[in-house]
Amino acid sequence: MSNPRIAFVGAGNMTASLIGGLRAQGVAADAIRASNRSTEKLERLASEHGIATFTDNAEAVAGADIVVLAVKPQVMQAVCRELAAQLPDQTLIVSIAAGITCASLQRWLGAGTAARAIVRCMPNTPSLLRQGVSGLYANAQVNAEQRRQAEQLLSAVGLALWLDAEQQLDAVTAVSGSGPAYFFLLLEAMTAAGERLGLPRETAALLARQTALGAARMACESALEASELRRRVTSPNGTTEAAIKTFQAGGFEPLVQQALSAAAARSAELAEQLSK
Ligand SMILES: NC(=O)C1=CN([C@@H]2O[C@H](COP(=O)(O)OP(=O)(O)OC[C@H]3O[C@@H](n4cnc5c(N)ncnc54)[C@H](O)[C@@H]3O)[C@@H](O)[C@H]2O)C=CC1
Ligand SMILES: O=C(O)[C@@H]1CCC=N1
């Protein structure tokens, strides 16, 4: 099956990013469907991408080869139980929800049926620009063709990296799932600092944004480690050193470690709380 029919359940930020990326990649509009509880987001998706949309999840998933579960973790159980009887055994289930395990999905979707083929993944919002990155984990029921399809789905919007252990998704969530927000926070802080140092707000924002873009491209395109790229900006006793020393005196690296540990712990905690 070279052109699988894909249904998205939940049409929020991530679905919009993924569908935008798939369409930009040339995936046909009639291969994509989406459902959502409310109509506003569906209308936007239908007008931007020409896809069929539904307020009834069961209607959206009818005939789909791949069902992407993209609702918030807290409503996943209800959505799965609602769809359990509608999904044939061979449907590939792709869940993008933070902290919902394959075992929970299987239990909610599978009552009385054969074990489901489930790919759990953690993408991120730059998928909208096809600059996303995702970690993917496949359970034992996922066959080679389905693995290829899941990889094709996620690699249409960025890099797709397979994981050996489901638990690693907590770390992926902490690094790259939530990661765009950390860079936006840094941009906000640098813009505010530039403004306080006397720049017009728009100028400060532009300087910060373009610097982030340039630095990210250097990090991606250079063969050098980030530490070496940093060293090359940092003249002995110069301006960068003054800033870096200030970051480090404030505990920057341990703070980053603490922040990412909190994200990973929250992902594991969601898995525990929502598995009931
Ligand atoms: N936002 C992000 O950066 C990332 C989010 N995720 C995961 O993606 C999932 C979706 O997140 P977002 O798109 O940010 O959330 P969102 O809140 O923007 O979208 C969820 C959508 O689901 C709809 N919905 C709620 N109940 C429903 C139901 N019973 N049936 C159908 N639709 C229903 C809501 O109306 C909403 O439009 C979450 O599980 C989150 O953990 C994963 C990676 C990154
Ligand atoms: O904040 C969250 O829970 C979701 C998962 C990764 C990014 N956003």
UniProtKB/TrEMBL annotation:
Q: Which GO terms describe its cellular component?
A: cytoplasm
Domain named Pyrroline-5-carboxylate reductase dimerisation: which ranges? Answer: 166-270
The Pyrroline-5-carboxylate reductase catalytic N-terminal domain extends over 5-99
What molecular function does GO assign, one term? pyrroline-5-carboxylate reductase activity
Which annotated residues bind NADPH?
57
- Reaction catalysis annotation: L-proline + NAD(+) = (S)-1-pyrroline-5-carboxylate + NADH + 2 H(+); L-proline + NADP(+) = (S)-1-pyrroline-5-carboxylate + NADPH + 2 H(+)
- State the pathway, as annotated in the record: Amino-acid biosynthesis; L-proline biosynthesis; L-proline from L-glutamate 5-semialdehyde: step 1/1
**Positions annotated to bind NADP(+):** 70-73
Any Pfam family from its record, for instance, is: P5CR_dimer
Bilayer-spanning residue ranges: none
GO terms in the biological process aspect are: L-proline biosynthetic process
Question: What does the record give as EC number?
Answer: 1.5.1.2
Query: Sorted alphabetically, which InterPro entries does this protein's record hold?
Result: 6-PGluconate_DH-like_C_sf, NAD(P)-bd_dom_sf, P5C_Rdtase_cat_N, P5CR-like_CS, P5CR_dimer, Pyrroline-COOH_reductase
Localization in the cell? Cytoplasm
Task: List keywords of the entry alphabetically.
Answer: Amino-acid biosynthesis, Cytoplasm, NADP, Oxidoreductase, Proline biosynthesis
Extract the HAMAP family matched here: P5C_reductase (MF_01925)
Reported function:
Catalyzes the reduction of 1-pyrroline-5-carboxylate (PCA) to L-proline.
Q: Which family does it belong to?
A: Belongs to the pyrroline-5-carboxylate reductase family.
This protein's name? Pyrroline-5-carboxylate reductase
Q: Which organism is it from?
A: Azomonas macrocytogenes (Azotobacter macrocytogenes)
Taxonomy, top ranks, is: Bacteria, Pseudomonadati, Pseudomonadota, Gammaproteobacteria, Pseudomonadales
